[in-house]
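The methods section describes the discrete structure representation at length, but only in general terms. An entry of this sort, consisting of the sequence and the corresponding backbone structure tokens, reads as follows:
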Amino acid sequence: MMDQLQLIGEVLASTIRLSTPLILCCLAGLWSERSGIVDIGLEGKMLAGAFAAAAGAIFFQSVWIGLALAILVSIGFSLVHGYAAIAQNGNQVVSGVAINMLTAGLALVLGNNWFHEGGRTPPLPDTLRFMPLTLPGDAALHQVPVVGLFYQVFSGHSLLTYLTFSLVPLSAWAMTRTRFGLRLRAAGENPHAVDTAGISVSGLRYRAVLIAGVLCGIAGAFLSTSLAAGFIKDMSAGRGFMALAALIFANWRTWPALWACLLFGFLSAAGNVLQGTTVGGVPVPVQFINMLPYVMTVVLLAGFIGKSIPPKASGLPYSKDR
């Protein structure tokens, strides 16, 4: 019984860790798309943030500087996307795809030029990473039934993970209870009405993409300085697209988005635990287990689970003349 509880605890704890970058990217997409800006570039900005965080931590010998650089780099790409989508009324999907392609290649070129390790960064020591934090009383209560399971699941995560889960209620409150959040949602539903009220639609949308840049930067920093010990090629592994799928599944709402991301994280964690298992004496292929989260992504995007309705002005360039 204790072994089963320990296994459950390990899976749930891993679910929280693996869900962290998904939640951050999903919140980034939520802010951006609620304002009317489709952001396919979540994947690319997260990857750029991961490289910037690892490289910055190595060059400046500070994980905090690495985090700051990750946020700044991600904001930079967000502004590029914002300029193309808001100022130039460009195709938002094309702009996002271009960012994904650019960051994937640029990270490899810079990594190989700076570190000469095939595009990856040298391994980060523990002093240059966001290491797990333990809750008070963890050592004494870890073996206590039920209470110990709680500590096993919720203790031992990095500062960025705890920050991520605190951002969920903050985002929900800001989106639905503040003047800025209500105006931003109105810009995604009826930008002409917002403009008629004397509020800058472009200003609201630029602020939304800036928030998205900050969140994607934190997600990238988590990948390379907490979940892993350095940057490797394509380490985002489609998480940005999975976050978009979770956002669509959640119908662009904060709390359902959290549960959708936890679902994807649980599938990934369960896949890690199931590696090496057998069914009827036949080993389960590792590839089959690893593809479970991506299969769920396709299932959700195919519309098998409910119908999602995006903001009415999502993806549509705004002009006063229209």
